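Task card 7
Instruction: Convert sequence to structure tokens.
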Amino acid sequence: MTEVVLGNASVVLRDEVVQGTVVIRDGLIAAIDQGSAHANVDLEGDYLLPGLVDVHTDHLEKQSMPRGGVFWNAVNAARTHDMIVCLGGTTTVFDSLVVGAVGNPDRLALLPHMLGGIAAAREAGLLKVDHLLHLRCDLREGELMEQLAPHLDDKTLRFVTAMDDGPNRDPDRYRRNKFRKGIATDVVEAEIAAAAAKGSETEQANRNRLVSLCRELGVPLASHDDTRQWHIDEAVRFGMTLSEFPITLESGRAAKAAGLSVIAGSPNVVLGRSHGTNVSVRDLAAEGLVDVLCSDYVPASMLHAVWQLTQPPLDMSLPEATAMASARPAELFGLSDRGEIALGKRADLIRVREHDGKPVVHNVWVGGARVV
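Output:
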């Protein structure tokens, strides 16, 4: 029997922070004792949090294809991605990978490249954290279902997102995004007119097929980047249960009212704004419209967002903010063995110390084994 006793810690439980000791036995949390007790690891008063559960990060793409047309060694990319995720405090990560090329042939080759790298690194014992799969399906892709089919039997697949960033979905948003990238007005308007003339038959057909497929497989399906009430109404009509990145107050309020679980990006929380023109997640959180945080495009952002949510004007408790990045995502996706510091749970834990008021990860345990 292997036992580790982490003492002198500020233990972040689901509803409170206690000063005490956590006993790990055979990879599970065996005891939580308040006050001082014999420990073989002294945390020196640092915070002990549950390992974070990140349900959306596209960071693997950046490691696998650092420049257009440059495909990095797949195993090396997977391991680098894994290390960076782990150092951010995440112990379970959903690698969020795009299905659909839509004019970018690199994307077509990138998906199997990344999946192969993760599988090979896992088999070689090179990964420190648990990797699960989240597929983001571009509904504009004419061969979407053919590209998706080879990956549907992946045992790590946990959910699918239906993405439609074309001009027909929301022309105003399309304009804003294109103008922000410096594309000329006449070019943008020509693209919108061409899309309107063509219609959205491909997107609608793919959405219908994706809904049926996910229902058949029992895989949760998320809507994505919703801006309007009707986007949420459509998601509900299709039986979707997740709203990933509602980017206006209108869609955030509609998603919450409809009972959808809302997933929002942590970089937005840290910055206090979107990197584009979307709603501030702090504003969504202030109205209680956010259920789960994810790192989106900055793996280290989740822990920093947790700390940010405890600051004015939101003033969440540390346990409440932590749960948005650990217990809630674990519960949402049926990972009942992790996500909080509680008896019998897997000992996925992170030791965090504040430096200049910001959280820094000092140690990480996954299944009771110290990996950082």
